[in-house]
From TrEMBL:
SUPFAM superfamilies: ACT-like (SSF55021), Carbamate kinase-like (SSF53633), Glyceraldehyde-3-phosphate dehydrogenase-like, C-terminal domain (SSF55347), NAD(P)-binding Rossmann-fold domains (SSF51735). It comes from the Bacteria. Its cofactor is a metal cation. This is Bifunctional aspartate kinase/homoserine dehydrogenase I. Residues 317-391, 398-471 form the ACT domain.
Amino acid sequence: MKILKFGGSSVANLENIRKVFAIIQKQIKKEEIAVVFSALGGVTEILLQSAQKAKEGDRSYIDEVKILEDRHFELVRQLIPIQSQSTVLTYVKVRFNELDDLFHGVYLIKECSAKTLDYVASFGERLSAFILAEALKIEELPAVFVDARDLVRTNNRFGNAKVDFFTTNDLIADYFHSHPGLKIITGFIGSTEKGETTTLGRSGSDYTAAIFASALNADSLEIWTDVSGVLTSDPRLVYSAFTIPQLTYNEAMELSHFGAKVIFPATMQPAMRKGIPIYIKNTFDPENPGTLISNESGNGKLIKGISSMSGISLLNIQGAGLIEVVGVSRRVFGSLADAGINVILISQASSEHSICIAIKTTEVIAAKESIEKEFLYEIKNGEMDPVLVVSEMAVVAAVGENMKHNPGASGRMFQALGRNNVNVFAIAQGSSELNISAVVSQADLQKALNALHEAFFLSDNKVLHVFLVGVGLIGKTLIRMIAQQRKKLMQENDLDIQIHGIANSRYMAFDEDGFDLANCPLPQDAKGAKPMDIKKFVAQMEEMNFSNSVFVDCTASQDVADVYEQVLEAKVALVTPNKKANSGSLETYKGLKKLAYKRGVKFLYETNVAAGLPVISTLQDLMLCGDKVLRIEAVLSGSMNFIFSELEKGTPFSEVVKQAKEKGYTEPDPRDDLSGMDVGRKILILGREAEQDLQFEDIQIQSMVPADCVDAQSVEEFMAKLPAHDAEFAHLLAEAKSKGEKLRFMATLENGKAMVGLRSIDSSHPFYTLKGSDNMILFTTERYHDFPMIIRGPGAGADVTAAGVFADVIRLGNFSR
Ligand SMILES: NC(=O)C1=CN([C@@H]2O[C@H](COP(=O)(O)OP(=O)(O)OC[C@H]3O[C@@H](n4cnc5c(N)ncnc54)[C@H](O)[C@@H]3O)[C@@H](O)[C@H]2O)C=CC1
Ligand SMILES: N[C@@H](CC=O)C(=O)O
Ligand code: NA
């Protein structure tokens, strides 16, 4: 025997009822079943509201009830052929006549007791079960309508009646024994010994189903609803939440306590006591296995679900006078109990200096008052502080029986929260080890849930949430690369990269779900685009509060570099090819590194020097292993190398500068390259990475920008002035050529002194053979002494740079697993 229960949403309309009937038809072929129905979706609420209106003398209840009546009539007409309708229509009409009389009575005497309300509510289930039983007969099933008031005996606590199981079990067993057929049972209702109608409280129809399952020693109980079982977390907050295949009764109770509304613990009790397996199934996706709740724990995951509760406040009761005083907690909790306040979570450190209590925010004023009244004397004497209240809090809880005797759950939980900058205000874990609860701020709730969900369930699949400032050449190329590689990264590296914020100098836009990267708009074309304001951009990123957030700066802007501190402070990782921050003051450089370390987030900038070539990371490795850099000699500018090597082909200087710009090698303003500033910044960064305390002023730089071009108002004006200088550069080249040499724009750093400028080098020099946008870096160190370590390859251009930025982003995915 199996009991099936269908909730209000499953029988809300004809379309849904057809699905329910298909499920019943399928199941009845396999085994004996009985079915419990709720009222049609929304009917109970309308009945109770109408009673309230009648009581208040508001005659609009008449219209409401009429609508209900029509809805039931309509359903009968839809479900049952005309020649068989009369019995059902009569039943429905008689019920509504009774309701009319009842409401009229309530209207006249302006009184509606809990007893009357129960009677009113009972019409919902009686109507639905009767109509559906008759409709099932039309489907040629041996349906028998069962009014549960005849079988479920309760006390007279109207609204939430207690079941007399002794009598009820006998009545049910006898009835089933003596009545064949497919029983169609009204959920939610029962009756007292005197025959007064009662209701079973919240989720009463589930309870009815469990009562019948228990009385009949059913093999299983199926609760059919509109979701596919109990989910790992609230799907409105955690998009990746999924159905938990199996739960123990205890786990289900813990999860539902925290708002997994699918099942209400009290209703499971009768089935639980008998160890009857309960399946939570989806009427609208019947093939989905849903969730099985039984004595078995199922899979070996450390936890089963992550629950939460919002609208929480913390009360902190503290004071020196509380230490080692016996009876403090009795008085605290006694006063709360007297005020009828439910305590949700308690935490007291063994120093006994404070007791921390979580309660519903709606009860906070009463709670504070009652405790302060109790401790009036102690507060007056300064032995205790006034009760401290922190509101706008939420509780997150990891739930699962496998945590028992299985170290690591709390470690994983708090590491995930900490890494994502979620501050924990209080913690509680009972010795049952079934649940670890943490109080966090309401603003952090969604991030906390997602971080925990990922840590416990998706540790194989990490999501990085990117906020990209600078959708220019490099930024656009980066987006394209992520779009192309995303599927592979997900499948083979369990890494998902989503972009949630984009900006250029004029516009910014955000997308909660992540932009469609294959068709990513430019910031100005995106939905909801706003004028760019870097402070607002960072504020929005913080407000979106994603776990594993990454700020990627693909601008060359100082304004953007100025927000790095705020970004790292918010525990958001940072990846950038922009050299401005690291080549700013030494204090800024050191401060950012220190801050990233302190906040436990990564700050990666491989592309600050030589684009995607592994220069920074290599140098960092050398330093970590205790090497010492003696000398750096390098060609660090892709555009400058291109310019001076292309010059050799006889192309005029102004023309090769134009080409370098078109090829995307130059800085947004090519004067940054020609002036040696860009190379200066790079050698400065390398020096700093080599642990030398260098300032920008320590670098001697030779500029290649002709004097009359320095102050050009725009890049265009600058470019226009260049042809006038072609002859000077042709002359420089001819001079070098005459000696069999080549021109290379290079940087050296030795003995704390850095120099940047144009040199003429002979064929014995390693830089002689460099071509195009090549960079080359020679590290002479204590360990690479006789022959330097050499890194060489293209050091500018959209692809190699964006790929370097991309690699840094991917690296983040590996760090925080
Ligand atoms: N192009 C290359 O080969 C390499 C470039 N880099 C660096 O990459 C960065 C970007 O270079 P490109 O993409 O070539 O430049 P770009 O000029 O094509 O793009 C820069 C983008 O930043 C935006 N932007 C500028 N100021 C901004 C602000 N205050 N707020 C928001 N957005 C702003 C611009 O609107 C533009 O979309 C630079 O820092 C550059 O030094 C690093 C290595 C190689
Ligand atoms: N403009 C630079 C590229 C970025 O660092 C160069 O030419 O090397
Ligand atoms: Na690099």
